[in-house]
What we know:
Layout: H1 9-27, E1 31-35, E2 48-52, H2 55-67, H3 71-82, H4 91-103, H5 108-124, H6 129-187
Antiparallel strand pairs: 1-2
Amino acid sequence: MMRAMKISPRISCRHCLFFLISCSLITSCAQLQPVRKNPVQQSPSAVEVEILPSPAQQLMLAKSQMALGEYGKSSKILEEMISRPTEAGITDEALFQLALLNLSANNREGANKSSQLLQRLIKEHPRSPWAHLGQPLIELLDNLAEQRRQIAASKNQNQSLGKEIKELHQTIDQLKNLDLEMEKKSRR
């Protein structure tokens, strides 16, 4: 007798969606490129064909990884894409998406890297719709960096004021003790 396995519908649907998208990306419009394993040992006619997804398919794969919550995998694909020669309509979106992924890190390094990626986007693809979306983000990131600097300065100032207050309290306590001693001496 076979026992039915219980599979979480959420996990099952996510994995099925990822599998279907991945399969369609790899098989539908893949580019065929000749690759020679070892040209010295093989004859010129011995060529293997390697199927590589097109940049558009890689971008779609990265976006599907993001939709599944696989941000690390998506980031890796996008990093690889932006390291290659620029391709209009693809590299610009990859830069923008990667900048958004770095923003989700919610730390200074992520914000700095996002800002750098958005600046590169605007410099290399000034007419891209992604560059137009990136400009306000750069301004927000600059404001965020300025606010972080102000917060750090305020924290330093608060610490120094806290030290001064502590010292003043100690001085007040010393003066109170001195005053009590003088009062005791004057009564004798």
